Amino acid sequence: MKPWNLYTPEGVQDILFEACSQKRLLEDRLRNVFRLNGYRELETPTIEFFDVFGGERGLIRQESMYKFCDSKGRLLVLRPDLTVPVARVAATRLKNQDFPLKCCYIGNTFSFDELGGGRQHEFTQAGCEILGINSPEADAEVIAMAIEAIKATGIEDFQIDIGQVEFFKGLMEESGLEEHEVEEVRELIDLKDFVGVEQVMDRHKVKDELKTIILDLPKLFGPTDILQKINYDHIGQRASMALDNIKAILRILEDRGQAEHVSIDLGMVQSMNYYTGIVFRGYTYGIGFPVLSGGRYDKLISKFGRDCEATGFSLGINMALMALERQKKLKPFQKEGCLVCYEEGARKSASELCRELINQGIPTELDILMEDIEKTKEYAVRKGLSRIIYVNRDGSRKEYPL
Amino acid sequence: MRYITIALAKGRLTELSISLLEGAGIDCTELKSNSRKLILTDEKNKIRFFLAKPADVPVYVEYGAADIGIVGKDTLLEEGRDLYEVLNLGFAKCKMCVAGPKELEGRMDSITITRVATKYPEIARMYFRRKRKESVEIIKLSGSVELAPLVGLSDVIVDLVETGRTLKENGLVVLDEIADISARMVVNRVSMKMEKERIGKLIQDIRKQL
User: Fold this and answer.
1) In CATH, what is the architecture of A17-326?
2) Which 3 state secondary structure label does DSSP give A380?
3) Nearest chain B Cα to A119, which residue?
4) Shortest alpha-carbon distance between residue B206 and chain A (Å)
5) Fewer Cβ atoms within 10 A, N terminus or C terminus of chain A?
6) Cβ of A162 under 8 Å from any chain B Cβ?
7) Superfamily, domain A338-401
8) Residues in chain B where the model's pLDDT stays below 50
9) Residue A135 gets which letter from DSSP?
10) Which residues on B lie below 8 Å from A285 (Cβ)?
11) Residue A335: what are its φ and ψ, rounded to 5°?
């Protein structure tokens, strides 16, 4: 007995015709936008060594990776992410390339993380990275690219939230909290748990002015003008520089005409071990999770033996499709294509007509059913074709629109 | 204007949740009318409500099927969902505790606890892994957890303790406190961003009453 032969494993799915063509269309549009903006695509393998992602000080939890062994008994994983492989490539294969380098990718990633709400175990990500440069211009470029990418998917109503991990790290440095307390505060701020943050602060002697700002952190999100409200006097140099950095990036985005969708969230403190500067996320209606995320990660590539600054983002294609579906923005199905049928003896001219139409870019198929016109019509309708052309032996044609 | 959807935990939290919402100017008449409808609305404020089993509330909110949820901290800890926890509503207060026979009092560190009975397997697992750095056998029960150590099913239990009367009457004592529990208001991460103004105002209006 083969009890599972009819099923797919949890978290993976067959994507059939219409959904598949929607997905391809989206991928094509993204690929095109990336290419037009000067990003070159690369492809990395689906399988990587576990050590690339995991191991000591690993970036990705081992529980969330699909693992198996190669013929020598070494641990392999299905890639859980595409930025880390790009970092590996940057430090190894590209070490003689002139930087900065703009690259992009579209590919499937795999993770055992929670399912549901658009999250699958196998999902497609599209992203861009800029390697070898740390400047507000580069960060603004990546955010601008993220905005272009969301727009290319057809999502119109969206918001990009920008934060800066250095702001939080700077405040914590000033506060003099111990490492485990910093982690506790980070978790609480991430949950926007106002009360919890206050409880921790009350246990410690932190300067009142600084304390007020830390307590406000969970609330420091919204339109970009909230940045003006923050008083530089008590936050220390590191956090001040972080604020200046965000402001510089915002000015560039404004000049590029792309500040419209941007807002601020200084309480964005997830993935602190990964990101080193600006961080951002893209949100839209209809789905409970961000559709894209990104930021600056200057330390990642050094894990692979080369110091190299980098910034980038990735967009979840499955998530974007789900949002489009919920927002009823997916292009409705349109009848398209042609079926060429023929009277006995007219096969030659029918197939010539077929080729002609295909060359014009019209999806066309030559009849293989050899049924009467009613049955043939049924087939063509089911297939979503827009017409049938019937070729007679004498070369005349009759057209049946559907 | 879009509807803002609020998921309320069915049970002991429902009534107090409703009175807080009413205090914030939301019309809950439909909600209080004992209707069989699953989704109830306040058309004026464009707010929809539904009641769900407590354990399901964080799920609805995480997926964005509800923007806001009102639910106990015990459920939030157990479900471990990725949400914003914006308000401690302060009611339905109690404590999540480890409890066991009196003989174990003050000797928690000297014995190796092997079996833990609980309705909250995740909370128990997290407590023993993080705080006590122990691997334990968790036995999931659905109710009357106090029974387990009495009949030899487990060594200790992890459960909510409100007054401690049930424990006392059965010869059990609190061995350690895990967390303070009370009702909380949670918000979906995306909704908080996309509907900042309306949700922010609602939070403020509720906070004023606390």
Assistant:
1) 2-Layer Sandwich (3.30)
2) helix
3) B63
4) 14
5) N
6) no
7) Anticodon-binding domain (3.40.50.800)
8) none
9) -
10) 2, 190, 194
11) -65, 135
Q: Which long-range contacts (CB under 8 A, 24 or more apart) does A204-211 make?
A: A204/A175, A204/A176, A204/A177, A206/A175, A206/A176, A206/A177, A207/A174, A207/A234, A209/A233, A209/A234, A210/A171, A210/A174, A210/A175, A210/A234, A210/A235, A211/A175
- CB contact under 8 Å between B194 and A290, yes or no, is no
- CA-nearest residue to A265 within chain B is B193
Q: Is the pLDDT of residue A84 over 90?
A: yes
Q: Is the pLDDT of residue A60 over 90?
A: no
| Percentage with pLDDT > 70 across chain A | 99
Backbone angles phi, psi at A31, to 5 degrees: -60, -40
Which CATH code of 3.40.640.10, 1.10.10.10, 3.40.190.10, 3.40.109.10 fits the domain covering B94-179?
Answer: 3.40.190.10
Domain B4-92+182-207 annotated CATH 3.40.190.10: yes
CB of A163 closer than 8 Å to CB of A264: yes
Q: For chain A, which residues make up each domain, given as ranges?
A: 17-326, 338-401
pLDDT (tens digit, 9 = 90+) per residue, A220-263?
A: 888 888 898 888 888 899 999 999 999 999 999 999 999 989 99
CA A43 → CA A109, A126, A130, A368, distances in Å? 12, 11, 16, 39
